[in-house]
Design a protein that fits this description.
66% of the residues lie in helices and 2% in strands. It is mostly helical. The chain folds into five domains: 231 residues, no CATH class; 164 residues, no CATH class; 108 residues, no CATH class; 153 residues, no CATH class; 175 residues. A hairpin with a 6-residue loop joins strand 1 and strand 2.
């Protein structure tokens, strides 16, 4: 060891002597390079012998720097004889700040080398972190000395000003160098004491700046940035302040293809989503895409108009119209309010308006083809319809309406003539705006004393059953945030009507029965259309909630028909059979029995099971069965719905040859009544409206059964008009769906439902694999980004399950080169990484939003405050037994919205979400897979994908992604651990050298 030290000392002395000889003989830098290698053995760095220290020491001996020695220093760097770390470390030790010419020379030298700073060996990596922090500290020291000099004399010498400018330039170069910023971040954790000293130094400089009023600007910077601005960025090292060059370029895409599919999926498949959830989802998308609020507003309106393109005449027409023209203004108002959007005041009216929304309409008017087509289809100025709704929410003023309408009117007038006969969508728009008034009236009546208003309430509800009025009412209620109130009122009314009393006779009893029947079927229709979850509340124990939970057949939720049979009371079953038999014998039937209606609903499964068994054993004839079924539906349509529900559940369980009889029974239940029972039925209140809704519900049950794979082929042939399932193989169905999307560039309504069916039938792994295969077929960047947008939106069919499938199955398979998976190569790998990151962030936000859904507990207060929904002005009164029920005209009443979700605000705040299962476990497994490919210094396509993935994750998620980064195994990139810092520094240097190699090749 002593010998080694003596050899080192000897060679250090020789190098110093050679430096003196080089200066005396005025060697060129090339001569220096040749001669110095006679002392340095091959493969040994000059850092071992403090070569950088020796050169710098000789360079700054006098009052001015020796430029010859500095040229030797630069040549030694270029020849890899010394490291950048050693040079920075030595310069940072220079403390003779009064020798301005030396400082200027050293700063000029730094300026010339700072952009090329890197590491070429493992030993240098740990040195460079501390050296970079020390260099920044040195620059701050220089500036502090200049400030103190200015504080004393209130003026600077020419040399001092030159020093300041050079300090500013070096600081600017460091700030604009992502590699050095990364090294500085690692150094901050590597030597926290030194970084604390750095921060204290900056605080002192900041105070001096305030005291002296001296502000130094960077001459070359077009942004008029001060020196202290750059210092602040280096000392604070906050991502938002740094304005780091984004990995993905940071350019906002000129055209987006994600908003329209996202809107189509959310409106068609999740129509009951709260406005707050919509706001949270849309702001998350805005953040991911880097949109301004004006751009977001424009894309939302544009996406709605494109979605309306092909819904004409479908059952979802009213829903999309209501969303586009009623809910979207609510959403925009919510976003504007929550984010403290920019406002200005109209000079003419003194009313405030949203600056972003004005800009959004200016952007929207640039998309003339979409507006022209919708104006032609609707025979109206579609922009005017949107504008008027925005005015109601005080987002725009009448001045803006006149301005934008005037811009569109000349075009719109000409377009009306092209499709003058196509007024269907126009009528739908008018109905959507008008339905707000009867909805308020219904809500008012549902919150009243039913014994006083049951006749009028029955009339109002049955009027809703005509045409598509029920769809309209439900659509408007959902988009206005009144849906839960509507459902709660119907459940309460149904529970009121289910119990007959001995006091009620004649008309009152008949009305009560009809009210029970109508409310039951309206609730069943809503549960069928939107899922039972929209009906059910936690701990809800009303009759209908129990029935829909345990007895209603529905998609995606299988129920055991035999469990329903076993739950029946044998005594009630016997009495029900006797009542139906007496009806066949000319007796009173169900009308004369003492059975409660809810008990009949619960007992119908056991009754039908016995009938089917008797039919199979030929103990009962089809004629008798027909009479029995007619007796059920003649009494109440809801009984026919209960019977059909059980029969469809039963058919899903039995063999194909056992399905014909129950299907014939279902057909009989929805067929028209004939004979004496028909005459008796026609005397009931609103029989046609009730019968029509019953038929609609039963036919939907048939259609859902026909979606199942175990259906008897004979039944498909028997009901071809109702058959909704494609005979094509699943692969071909997906290809048809994708072709429809590619041809249009947006997601049509029928394709939305087809993709949802494929997801339910084949699972998320199958669908995601097909979508990624389409992504990897793209060759050009524009096509890749477009396809990625569409795939990302389609994954919102079930974003959590699709994300888990992508991260836990498909990406690992692609990394492991499993058969039939695309190879991960650029540029597809970058787009795949972006898709993965988008999905992770959206799934995180969705889990937060889902955990904060409202419960039925808040609905009671809504019912108590239902009077607030009606105003005295412009009301059409409906007299309900002496009680005035207001129905508000189409107006600008704001419905009561919750405060926006915390997850929206926390993008801008300090709140950081926590990961939940299954996403957390999925990411842990994925990161363990990543570690298999980053154990070497070789940059393979797979390693580059992982780098892109992590870079985009940090860039897109910022502080909110910390919970994901904590899952990286073995402290990988965890700067709080030595191993993590070492891994981070190694990979940062590896990437830096690769980038420099690419740049040198270009040269």
């Amino acid at each position: 060891m002593i010998m080694d030290n003596s050899k080192t000392t000897s060679k250090t002395t020789l190098l110093k002597l050679m430096l003196l000889r080089a200066w005396k003989e005025r060697w060129t830098d090339c001569q220096w390079g040749i001669n110095v290698k006679t002392i340095l053995t091959r493969g040994v760095s000059g850092d071992v012998y403090n070569l950088a220290d020796a050169i710098v020491q000789q360079a700054v001996v006098g009052s001015g720097a020796n430029m010859l020695f500095l040229s030797y220093l630069k040549h030694s760097l270029c020849a890899h004889l010394i490291s950048h770390a050693a040079v920075l470390n030595r310069i940072a030790k220079y403390d003779q700040f009064d020798k301005h010419h030396c400082l200027i020379a050293l700063l000029d030298f730094l300026k010339s080398i700072i952009d090329g700073v890197t590491c070429r060996g493992k030993q240098e990596e740990s040195i460079l972190t501390k050296a970079t922090v020390a260099l920044v500290h040195w620059l701050l020291q220089i500036y502090e000395c200049i400030l103190k000099a200015y504080a004393d004399s209130r003026a600077l010498q020419t040399e001092e000003e030159d020093v300041v400018q050079r300090v500013a330039i070096v600081l600017e170069r460091i700030v604009e160098n992502p590699f050095l910023l990364g090294v500085l971040s690692i150094g901050k954790c590597e030597d926290p004491d030194l970084f604390l000293t750095l921060q204290k130094r900056f605080n002192g400089i900041n105070n001096l700046t305030i005291t002296t009023g001296y502000v130094a600007h960077v001459g070359s910077s077009p942004k008029n940035v001060t020196v202290t601005d750059y210092m602040r960025k280096l000392v604070l090292l906050e991502v938002d302040i740094l304005e780091m060059k984004q990995f993905d370029g940071g350019k906002v895409e000129p055209i987006t293809f994600s908003l329209q599919p996202f809107i189509a999926i959310e409106v068609l498949l999740n129509p009951m989503t709260d406005t707050n959830q919509n706001v949270a989802q849309l702001i998350t998308l805005k953040r991911l895409k880097g949109y301004s609020y004006a751009r977001l507003y424009c894309e939302i309106m544009r996406g709605c108009l494109i979605s309306l393109n092909n819904v004409e005449g479908t059952s979802k027409e009213s829903l999309l119209c209501a969303f586009a023209f009623i809910k979207v203004p609510h959403i925009l108002h919510q976003i504007h309010t929550k984010t403290n959007g920019k406002e200005q005041q109209d000079e003419a009216t003194s009313a405030n308006y949203s600056v972003d929304l004005v800009e959004a309409f200016e952007l929207l008017l640039q998309d003339a083809p979409v507006l022209d087509y919708m104006d032609m289809k609707c025979s109206c100025n579609i922009v005017e319809c949107l504008l008027k709704e925005m005015v109601k929410h005080h987002l725009l003023t009448e001045t803006h309406v006149k301005h934008f309408v005037a811009l569109r009117d000349p075009v719109t007038v000409g377009l009306h003539k092209l499709e003058a006969n196509n007024a269907h969508l126009t009528l739908m728009l008018k109905f959507v705006f008008r339905v707000e008034s009867p909805l308020v009236g219904i809500l008012k009546a549902l919150s009243a004393d039913y014994s006083k208003v049951q006749d009028a309430l029955l009339a109002m509800l049955c009027q809703v059953l005509t045409g598509n009025s029920l769809d309209l009412i439900v659509s408007v209620a959902s988009v206005e945030g009144k849906f839960k109130t509507f459902i709660a009122g119907l459940l309460k009314c149904n529970d009121y009507a289910k119990q007959t009393t001995s006091v009620e006779i004649g008309k009152a009893s008949t009305t009560r029965g009809a009210l029970f029947d109508v409310t039951f079927m309206i609730l069943a229709c809503i549960a069928q259309s939107y899922g039972s979850d929209v009906i059910l509340a936690e701990g809800g124990n009303s009759f209908f909630e129990k029935w829909v939970r345990d007895y209603m057949v529905e998609r995606k939720k299988s129920k055991s028909p035999m469990t329903m049979v076993k739950q029946a009371d044998p005594m009630v079953l016997e009495e029900l059979i006797m009542a139906l038999n007496s009806s066949n014998d000319g007796g009173g039937g169900l009308k004369g029995s003492n059975l409660r209606w809810e008990d009949i609903c619960y007992t119908i499964p056991a009754l039908l099971h016995q009938v089917l068994m008797a039919w199979e054993n030929e103990k009962i004839s089809p004629v008798e069965i027909k009479k029995m079924l007619d007796g059920l539906k003649a009494h109440f349509c809801s009984f026919a719905v209960c019977a059909s529900s059980w029969l469809c559940a039963y058919m899903q369980m039995v063999r194909q040859d056992e399905q014909v009889k129950p299907m014939n029974m279902v057909q009989q239940l929805c067929s028209v009544l004939a004979g004496p029972q028909a005459e008796e039925w026609q005397q009931q209140d609103y029989c046609k409206e009730r019968f029509g809704l019953m038929g609609q519900i039963i036919r939907r049950m048939q259609q859902e059964f026909q979606r199942t794979p175990q259906i008897n082929p004979k039944l498909r042939a028997l009901f071809p008009s109702q058959h909704m399932v494609s005979h094509l193989p699943l692969e071909e169905q997906f290809e048809e769906a994708w072709k429809a999307i590619v041809e249009r560039g947006w997601l049509p309504i029928e394709t939305t439902f087809l993709l949802d069916t494929l997801l339910q039938s084949c699972g998320p792994s199958w669908l995601v694999e097909k979508l990624i295969a389409k992504l990897f077929l793209c060759k050009y960047i524009r096509d890749l980004n477009k396809t990625m947008d569409i795939v990302f939106a389609i994954m919102h069919l079930d974003v959590e399950r699709c994300t888990i499938a992508l991260l836990s199955q498909l990406v690992p398979m692609m990394l492991q080169n499993k058969q039939q998976t695309p190879e991960i190569v650029d540029p597809q790998s970058r787009v795949l990484a972006k898709l993965c990151v988008y999905c992770i962030i959206v799934t995180m936000e969705a889990s937060i939003t889902a955990s904060k859904k409202r419960t039925r507990a808040t609905v009671g207060s809504e019912l108590e405050d239902i009077d607030s929904l009606c105003t005295s002005a412009k009301l059409r009164k409906i007299e309900l037994d002496g009680m005035g029920v207001g129905c508000e005209a189409t107006g600008g009443n704001d419905f009561a919205l919750e405060s926006a979700l915390d997850s929206v605000a926390s993008w801008d705040g300090a709140s950081v979400p926590s990961l939940k299962e299954p996403l957390q476990g999925c990411l842990q497994t994925l990161f363990r897979t990543f570690t298999q490919y980053i154990t070497t210094d070789e940059l393979s396509p797979k390693v580059y994908f992982i780098f892109q993935f992590l870079s985009l994750l940090v860039e897109s998620g910022r502080d909110r992604i910390a919970c994901v980064l904590k899952l990286l195994p073995n402290g990988l990139y965890d700067l709080n651990t030595p191993t993590g810092r070492q891994c981070a520094m190694s990979d940062v240097c590896l990437l830096r050298n690769i980038q420099m190699r690419k740049e040198s090749i270009k040269l």
